[in-house]
Here is the input.
Amino acid sequence: MKDITLRVARFDPEKDTEPHIESYTVRLHNGARILHALHAIHDTIDPTLAYRYCCGSGQCGSCAIRINGVPGLACMEEARTGILVEPLRLPVVRDLVVDLGPFFKDLASLVPKEGAVIPKKAEIESIKPLRSCIECMACISVCPAMDVTEFAGPTAMRQEMRLALDPRDGNDRIRESVGTGLFTCTSCQACWKACPKNIEIPGKAIEKLRALANREGLTLPRHTEVAALIRSTGRSVTRTEPTFMELMDKTEIEPVGELRAEVGFFVGCMYNMRLPKTALDAIEVLRRNGFRVIIPREQVCCGSPLIRTGQIEFIELLKRRNIEAFKFRGIDTVVTMCAGCGSTLKNDYKTPFTVMDISELLLKYGIEQPARLPVTATYHDPCHLLRGQGISEQPRTLIRQVVDLTEMPAWCCGSGGGVRSGIPEEAAALGEKRREEIQKTGAEVVISSCPFCEFHISEHTDKPVKNITTILAEGYREKDRKKALGEKPVS
Amino acid sequence: MRAVEVVDCHVLVIGSGGAGVRAAIEASGYGDTILISKTIAGKGGCTPMAEGGLNAVLREEDSCEIHFEDTMKGGAHLNDPELVRILVRDAPKRMDDLIRWGAVFDFTEKDEVAQRPFGGQRFPRTCYAGDRTGHEIMMTLMEQLRASSVSILQETTAIELLKDGNAIGGAIVLDRDGEMSVIKADSTIIATGGGSQIFDITTNSSSGTGDGYALGYRAGADLIDMEMVQFHPTGAVFPYDARGRLVTEAVRGEGGILTNTLGERFMKSYDPERMELSTRDVIARAIATEVLEGRGTDHNGVYLDVSHLPKEQIENRLPLMLEQFLKYGIDIRKQPMEVAPTAHHIMGGLRITPDCRTTLPGLFACGEATGGVHGGNRLGGNALADTQVFGKIAGAAAGNEPKRTIHIDEKLIESQRRRLGGFLKGTVNPADVSRQLKKAMWDGAGIFRNAADLEKTLNTANKLLFEKLHADSQRMVSECCTVQNMCTTALLVCRGAILRRESRGAHVRIDVQQTWNSLTTPYRHTYLSRTREGIEKVMPQ
Here is the structure.
């Protein structure tokens, strides 16, 4: 047995205007879950503590809460001392009990077709990954789109896809899902990561529904334009200034100083066409740290704008072209600086080479210490880096070598999943929420590691928004400047 | 006299497990139906937790006759033959309903519903969805319920049935804040599930507190065979707070083997023909005996091992088991599980006719809250079948009842108000009472019983029933009501166990010598009501 101290959010609607945190110490058996700690508090300290539970074994979803800010099931997560227990990020009724009623209404029901339809085993197998939902509403509680638009939510879309796959269902689920916000999803993947059953809603429901919508001619016109552009130019944006590829006249770039490793460089459409100077910063940082950088000129759009919007007709062509571009040159490690491209190459492609995000790569090899810059900064986690690639510490470690970092909560900027082009008001509304968070940090600079985030957030803050490699490059330039002046660099 | 809110309907369903929701869907075709659930509808009870499967005769090579015989034999011939006939006849039809409504059962390569072997059955007829069959059924039913006209009252607790003369006319209920109101109904269906939470070690969810038994009993209904408690042989033993959670029979159905600490497959000493796929009562007693005789683990359990099976089979057929055990640090693909008996299902309950009428006019019941379907021991897979077969019958029968005028007995309302008011002035922590009750029942009314311990436990339960339970505020009075229902259910179990002076099915009296078996026994049902109790004797030929 051991003593565990928990901090629990309490809220009494009759007395409180907002929740407050109470600390409780209880004696628990080894292996006790958070639910058992709540029972101990209720049974021995404060019987007024309100919380939900039924099965106690991870099957009913009643006890979904936030543990240190992250959704989980109280009956499955181990009770550890010091944790913060709060209700899901939904309207609170009392203490840990939230109002779930509205969300059950958004879940569609199967409408049996006339006549006896028996599914085939293959159809059953396709539905199964979408079927284990226990309606805990954790996904709903973390969905950014639902904060700012009319969206039925992740599990509602999961249910639509489950029905769309079922031959017994008689309704048009594609039109229904389009009508209840299918295209408002930014593909941030917060739903998947919050799901206690690990249901891959973005890839297995949202993207697949959008692909079915594409077959029905329901793709948003702005998205169809992007697909047409990729088909004709190999790029998802138009050329408005000299591209990175044009500015780099060589395919092979030698390092400054000793060679430590060779990498292929996948630039991505946005850095290539819209933010080429940032890509040049990345090359500068790579060269400075001993990398020979190979930039195959045949590389094209990674295809993410097509995959996320369900326009997958010629995606295999793009994949083959990109894989060949690096494989042909015998490259075994490809570095990406765009979080979206990196996530796509890692998760949607089967590459014969290793794909690494630039922050992964730089930390793996270690970098030359830059000079510190006298600014305060905050870091915006790109969704496709944080959740798409599981990378959150590496960018921070690199950033802290140059500037002081103040944290803000990780939340989608609103520009992913085709939302920036398809539903600009939604993207703007989410961008404004970033403005608030940035302001709260008091930071002078916003750093990120994704061109969509950088582009979008710069429209929603008055602070400069810089890529992580730009910050590192500035650190090196400052170091060189000081050295040239005979000053000792501040470290 | 303060006014209490009154709501009218044609059918009131109390309980939102497999039986309750099936009944409500059916009843909605006949008139205004209200379903109340003390949990969030569809989440409470054991149905969403059920893992193994639903028995139904689907194949040419199988027959209802074989299913009937398996069920009667498994039930120690205490079952009502007519109820069993209906169960086996209608289970395939209810499977058809579920399939039509979109249930995602596992299918075979031949595009038929897959079926696996299960305990005590001579044919593999247990339809399944991985090891989450109950969840699958609930998801399917909840979709249809939400699409129907049924009015769902979430987190609403029935505290007493509304008596109108001798008939039942609805129920007195509490909402989430403990505010009382009355629901009048031409027919009321009790579908509140079981009561195994009265035991210290149990598979049951928080709502398995015997509310339906207590509500029906207090209103004057007959209950039968309440002593028949199924101790599922394989409950997990670690961690302490999650002890008793179900390790599905499907683990044995897929080929899991039981061994003691000497490494012996001990079932060969108890049921060499069927081994791990014997009936639950036999295996529970076997494990309890192995432990009593010193061949059990430190946690008073034995080993259940599937590590000899291909890992893909475990990942596809037992994903929930894999996930749960991994959470607690055991990889069942490589290591054995430690298991021990755990209170799981009450075969007894409200006495019903073949159309689910109880002995009180206006009151119907279906599912685990009823008695007679499973006799002295329930076959795995028959409970889910029970919920669908009798849920539908109860819904239709209740729906078919004529409309009538129901009078509210103001004295009953007042007495409930006093009851709730008493809790606010009470002095005893309901959590302590619950804990004491569970421990007493586990020790004194468990797998091996004797008259002395049963009497002692009966007295304890009675004393606990009359404790002055304390509710901190109006919102918490329903907890006190629930604990009282647990005490009442415990009393019924003890009384039934004392009345049945024989060992039969799941009920063992070590203090009784008998010369008969379940076919030659002189006894049939035990029966309990507020006015009488006894045990039925077989009529001499």
